[in-house]
Amino acid sequence: MGMNKNSIFGWASFVLFLIGATVILLGLLKYLDYAIGFSVVGIGFFAISWAFNALKGRV
Fold it and tell me: Where are the transmembrane segments (predicted)?
């Protein structure tokens, strides 16, 4: 059984959410001097993840 469009959007959304959380945690735990930049990039990944999740069932 293959993956349809909705499951692809779901997995892509989940992976982007994980990448965003990882980038934010890296900024907060390892690279504290650059935490603002890492947080902005992580929030960008969250926004793309939200958009992919919103596209599920519409495309």
Answer: 7-28, 34-55
- The alpha carbon of 29 is separated from its chain's Cα centroid by a whole number of angstroms, namely 19
* 27, amino acid identity: G
Q: Where are the beta strands (DSSP E) in 1-59?
A: none
Mean pLDDT of the region 5-23: 93
- What is the model's pTM? 0.86
Tokens of 20: 């965003």
Q: Is 1 helix (H, G, I), strand (E, B) or coil?
A: coil
Residue 27, judged by CB atoms within 10 A of its CB (0-12, 13-18, 19+), counts as buried
Residue with tokens 């735990």, as numbered in its chain: 29
Residues 36 and 30: their CA atoms lie apart, in Å, by: 13
